[in-house]
Amino acid sequence: MLRLEHVSKNFGKAGVFEVTLELAPGEIMAVLGASGSGKTTLLNLVAGLLKPDTGRIFLGPEEVTHHPPEQRGLAYVFQDHALWPHLSALEHLLLVMKKPNREAAHHLLERVGLAGLDARKPHQLSGGQKQRVALARALAAKPRLLLLDEPYSALDPVLREELRLEVASLLRAEHVSALHVTHDPDEALAVADRVAVMEGGRIVQVDTPTQVYTQPQTLSAARAFGRLNLLPVQVQNGWVQLNGLAWAVEGLQSGSGLLAFRYEDLRPEPEGFPAKVLAVYGGRGERLCRVNLGIGEAVVKLQAEPGEEVRLSPTGRLRVFETNR
Length: 325
Ligand SMILES: Nc1ncnc2c1ncn2[C@@H]1O[C@H](COP(=O)(O)OP(=O)(O)OP(=O)(O)O)[C@@H](O)[C@H]1O
Description:
The protein has helices at residues 39-47, 89-96, 102-111, 127-140, 157-174, 185-191, 209-214, 219-224; strands at 2-10, 16-23, 28-33, 54-59, 62-63, 74-77, 145-149, 177-181, 194-199, 202-207, 228-235, 239-242, 245-251, 255-262, 266-283, 286-292, 297-301, 309-314, 318-322. By secondary structure, the chain is α/β, with parallel strands linked by helices. The strands form 4 sheets. A 6-stranded mixed sheet has the order 6-7-8-3-9-10, with helices on both faces. The radius of gyration is 23 Å and the shape is globular. It binds adenosine-5'-triphosphate (ATP). It comes from Meiothermus ruber (strain ATCC 35948 / DSM 1279 / VKM B-1258 / 21).
């Protein structure tokens, strides 16, 4: 559906962007990465708002590298809603529909939670409502590809969850592909078939959300999903010492690195290494403990009480990343 072949853009001192990427028809891909990693640049290049220095962009079989945005058959929802001040919510949709249909436009507004607001103009809508008009307009155009840049950032958590599932189901029903930039790992897990992690203008990993969560290939990929402990360690021939016990690790084989593990990657085990529970948090229906592991403090999903001495063991191989990555 979408193919980028060595698409590059040189921003001089701000760095070089270079990406090769493929998106299947109907696929929803989340784009995660730290601020400044190149997520918006990727969308701008695909949309035609930015010209690449080298490389080629295809939509389906057609090369669109030099096509202006309006000839690319895609829709985008960026953070500034770009609504027309003189048009009502309904008129925004009618204007972009190939066959304008008031009934269908009305129904779409209802599906994004704007029932009864058909006649409102942008200045009569809240920020979150404007964002939803922009989303409904993008969907009304029936694009082959939808580009989303933090589309739910102005919404409260309940509405955000409702809407992201509703939009994902609309996209799947219409078989529309989407590139979805987000900072929110829950959003990527909820809607994306695959996740692309960006770092320094490049894609460092493309995989299913579960694979990126459990097998991150770089430190930035590990960070993208949160729920992460990072402890400085010394690795010797693939082993680290944790409170007097040696554990095999993967990744860095020797030298200083960062031991990276999720809250659920350690579990109680009589043969494990000793740790002391410092504090207990009640997060989202689960119990999280801050523990002292001897080499530093970490958060672990654990049923324990403050002050308790526990023994912990990794559920799988722990990973160490080079400190400078
Ligand atoms: N037109 C431009 N001219 C010069 N540098 C640019 C331009 N556009 C982007 N950059 C630089 O390219 C890098 C990537 O920017 P981009 O906006 O794509 O990041 P991002 O991942 O979307 O960040 P954020 O999450 O903060 O929105 C940054 O270092 C930015 O300063």
